[in-house]
Design goal:
By secondary structure, the chain is mostly helical. It folds into two domains: about 80 residues, Orthogonal Bundle (434 Repressor (Amino-terminal Domain)), CATH 1.10.260; about 70 residues. The protein has nine helices and no strands. The radius of gyration is 24 Å and the shape is flat.
Length: about 190
């Protein structure tokens, strides 16, 4: 089996910063190029991941394969919203645009996504309405979503540096403690 060699770099930009640390102008140019091609690179990656050829995309878009190649090798600024939507539709995807304040922080973006999740959960609850089967399905999904979100936060918290006394900043436990295991009644997702 051919194992990929671990490089220690998390991105092409990190590799460029390391390889060309004596040429900051070249690094800046490479970073700008990478930044200007985020959307077209994502389109190309999605197409490849779905094992769809450029010719198949061209057929869906009613254009030539060379036009698809030009899109994928171009820059984001040259891509029209119509082309983006048509390309995404050819991959059976929707385009979702999000607007946020310039220079927003990671924390700002997490909060924005958390509020979006809340809106979607409220929509699911509204859709379930008085239908007991839908309510049970939505309630089950809520439990699944809760545990997945807590698990993700817990995994991210593990990467926080330890404090001076080597204790973690955040401790999230998904497993019941030994004392909880010894209690007669452990709460379940459906209630006690």
């Amino acid at each position: 089996m051919n194992k990929a060699k671990k490089t220690g770099f998390s991105s092409v930009a990190d590799l460029a910063r390391s390889a060309f640390k004596d040429d900051p102008d070249l690094v800046e140019e490479l970073e700008e190029d990478l930044s200007s091609r985020q959307v077209v690179r994502a389109l190309s990656a999605m197409r490849s991941a779905r094992n769809v050829s450029q010719a198949e995309i061209a057929s869906q878009l009613k254009c030539s394969q060379s036009k698809v190649s030009k899109i994928e090798n171009g820059v984001d600024a040259d891509l029209s919203v119509g082309e983006l939507e048509a390309y995404a539709r050819a991959l059976d995807c929707d385009v979702v645009l999000t607007f946020q304040k310039r220079h927003s922080t990671s924390a700002d973006r997490v909060k924005q996504h958390a509020f979006a999740i809340k809106r979607e959960l409220d929509d699911l609850a509204r859709i379930a309405g008085d239908d007991s089967t839908l309510r049970k399905g939505v309630a089950s999904f809520f439990v699944e979503a809760f545990f997945n979100i807590v698990r993700m936060i817990s995994e991210s918290a593990k990467s926080l540096p330890a404090t001076s006394d080597d204790s973690p900043h955040v401790r999230v436990s998904m497993e019941p403690s030994e004392s909880e295991m010894n209690e007669e009644q452990v709460p379940t997702a459906g209630g006690a």
